[in-house]
Input
Amino acid sequence: MPLASLPTQISGRNRMWRKIVIDAIRTDPEWKNGNYEKQPRGLRTAAQMVALMSGNPATRQKAGPTLKAADELFEQEVARRFKGMDANDILYAVESSWDYDPGPGLAKIRAPLVAINFADDLINPPELRVLEREIKRVPKGQAILIPASEETVGHATQTKAVVWKMHLEKFLKDTK
Output
C-alpha cells in the first residue's frame, strides 16, 4: 500500500525542489565533500525547502495570514526541522529517489494494491493525474485520493495514520 507517491520517475517540480536541496548542500564550501565539522549553511536552505514542500497550503495560510505571522511561522518550522537534520542524511534521503521509477514494472504486479495520495500534497500533486493514469496498469490496483481537510498536512499526511487507516483496514479485510 504505497502512500504519498507516484508510480513514475521523479520529475517536474518534485525533481526541481530536490535539486535545490542537493545543490544547497553540495555547493556549500562548508560541506567539505561530506566531511564537515559543523552542519554547512546550505542545510538551512534544505530545511526551508523541506518545510515549504511538505506542508498543506491552506493550513499554512491560516496559520500565517499576515507577512509577519508567515515569517514567524516559517522561521519556527525551519528552526525545528534544522535542529534534527544532518546534511549527509538529507542528501541520502533526497538523492535516493534519483533512479526511482516503478512505472516499467506496474503491469507485473499481481497482488492487490491500493495506492493512497492526498489532495494537498505539493510533492505528488493530484492535478498531474499520474496516479489515476498509471494505476490502470496494475491488474488489481486501486487509487484513493484523500481530500484536503483539517486533518491533512500535505505530503506529511502519510505519517498520520488516523487519516488513512480505514482504507488500510478495508484493504486488509478484502484481501484475506
In short: The chain has a mean pLDDT of 96.
